[in-house]
Amino acid sequence: MINQRLRQLRLARGMTLDDLAQATNRIVTRQAISKYEHGQAQPSPIVLQRLAQALGVRPTDLLDSTNTQIELIAYRKRATLSKRYHDHITALATEQLRARLRLQRLIGEPIRLDVPIYGYPIDQLEAAEAAADDLRVRWDLGKTPLVNLTDTLEDHGLHVIALDADNGFDGVAAIARDEHGEPLAAAVIGRRSRDGARWRMNLAHELGHLVLQPTSQLDEEKAAFRFASAFLAPATTLRTHVGEHRHHLHLGELLLLKRHFGMSIQALLYRMQTLGIINQRLYRSWMVKIGEQGWRTNEPEPLPMEEPLWLRRTVLRAVAEELIDPTEAQALLGESIDLLAESSRQDSLCHRLLRQPLAERHAVLAAQAAQMVDLYQTSPNVANEVEASEHSQ
After folding, report:
1. Does 44 score more than 70 pLDDT?
2. Given a cut of 90, is residue 389 above it in pLDDT?
3. pLDDT tens for each residue of 302-338
4. How far apart are CA 118 and CA 121, in angstroms?
């Protein structure tokens, strides 16, 4: 397993073979690392430790013997994305989900994946709309716009992962399976966006890839987009807000709808055109205006980014329970954290006592013993047994 883990971790760090060799201070060559990754040789314990240090992991992470298999679904990238960067994002997404699985095991969190993986076979785009409505019913979401899509997904056991990636990457879905092929976890992974509306659409789109099972004749991307649009803006709700048929739309109205549904102006216009609320002519007219204003990539009044909370909450829990150390916690979060649990431990009575001079420590212990004298007097036998036990050690 070391060959797969070594290559995956190296790619996730965006390192070439030469980068990794240099990070070990050249105690191992790029040629040797290549042999390790191809299973043609095994590193010595010393080399293994140096490789782990260079990759920012523990040596045992390179020897991970779990049979978890991670499957990436419908990787959405643009033609401008290089193969090297594609491999980097693929490995990074895989490692992010693997790290979350390890955290779940550490804290003893049970599998709670309330997502029908490939649960909706469809053979036409309209069926994707019905699937979105059905999932809303299953999750008891009603027909109102989702206040926070990221929270909703995490509440139903999905891992939501935001990557600081290049513009060539949009998103990907992932499933982690055990040795029997049963799903252990699933994730929707998107590029961190300056506009929360784009982020929400990307998440809903990847959710579509997880739950839909389109026939080979159906365009998977169109089906996922139709699902996402319907999930964020149910047809009946959107018609209630804008009417059955419209011949004109005001920019101010579109901006209010963007805020209400958490969807970009472009996605809303496409949704209205798909539902027959506006005709092709009005849709094209608005898309021309959007292009002229430079709004295709930077729309006005961007929405705030919805930050995933499960990872931060779980990492802080693991630190507080001393399941991981602060250094590992910061590596998982990719940033410094307020080590509240660590500071509270350092300020505990025990730590404060140990920082005192010896004479003062004895005085504190004597005062505490005086406070407990009644207990010792009422339980002399127990006290004597404890004292005898301590002296015998």
Report:
1. yes
2. no
3. 999 999 999 999 999 999 998 888 888 888 888 776 6
4. 7
Cα separation, 64 vs 105, in Å, equals 14
Q: Is 181 helix (H, G, I), strand (E, B) or coil?
A: coil
The pair of three-digit structure tokens given for residue 366, joined into one six-digit string? 């004597």
Tokens read off for 121: 């076979």
CA distances to 15, 280, 289, 296, 339 from 292, in Å: 40, 18, 5, 9, 49
Domain boundaries, the chain: 1-65, 66-292, 348-393
Task: Identify residue 168 by its one-letter amino acid code.
Answer: G
Q: Report the CATH fold assignment for 1-65.
A: 434 Repressor (Amino-terminal Domain) (1.10.260)
Environment class of residue 64 by beta-carbon count within 10 Å: exposed (0-12), middle (13-18) or buried (19+)? middle
CA 56 to chain centre: 19
Contacts (Cβ under 8 Å, ≥6 apart) of 46: 27
Helical pair 235-242 and 251-261, crossing angle rounded to 10 deg: 150
Do 76 and 221 meet the contact criterion of CB atoms below 8 Å apart? yes
List, in sequence order, every residue forming a beta bridge with 213; answer none if it has no partner: 121
Residue 390's identity, in one-letter code, is E
**How far is the C-alpha of 209 from the C-alpha of 189, rounded, in Å?**
12
Reported as a pLDDT band with limits 50, 70 and 90, residue 387 is very low
Per residue in 244-274, pLDDT (tens digit) is 999 999 999 999 999 999 999 999 999 999 9
Closest CA to 287 of 262, 267, 302: 267
Provide the residue count of the chain: 393
Q: pTM (2 decimals)?
A: 0.79
CA atoms within 13 A on the CB side of 266: 19
Q: What is the rounded CA–CA span in Å between residue 271 and residue 260?
A: 14
